[in-house]
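Run log, item B.
One chain of 189 residues. Sequence copied directly from the ordering sheet:
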Amino acid sequence: MKIQYRVRLQCQILGLALLALCAQGAARNVFAQDMAGMPGMAEAHKQTIPSTSLAVTVGGKTQTFSLSEIAAMPHETVSVMNSHLKKTESYSGVPLAALLDKMGMPFEKGNEHRLMKSYWIAEGTDGYKTVVSAYEALSVIHADTVMVADSVDGQPLQKDGAIKLVISGDKRPQRWVQNLKSLTLKSIE
């Protein structure tokens, strides 16, 4: 009787374990399907292609910057805590405000209200996109730095592509865009 009870108990435990595993797998599949249906979520898992240039669009005008042109622009360096890697990193790159200047829209009194109503759409080669307020990207207004980084800890970026959007004030690097391929300035008006 004891052996029969023990076998029955083991079968019940095994059955519950299998049921839990099946339910977990089904939940994972449902979650993956839900996430794939959300805009931007499917792009996060596409294969990455290294960025080779940066297309910047401001006011309907697009200019493509090569990696050497980005490297030749004035750079700033910021130290940030990368919560994904749990370490402090030192990024060097071109602030977005400098790209605005290059594109003919410097921060000045005449552009201030337009920039307050504008935002950048940053896109990586894998289709990952994020939005950054244009005003937030102005270091004369905002304490944090928003930059197109091309090096980390004194070395060229490698696994993140040749260029990467880095936002120093973000506690989590969710809006950082690896393999950055384009920046587009849009307005809410």
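Observations after the first pass:
- Residues 118 and 165 are 18 Å apart (CA to CA).
- Residues 2-37 form the longest helix (36 residues).
Flagged for discussion on Thursday.
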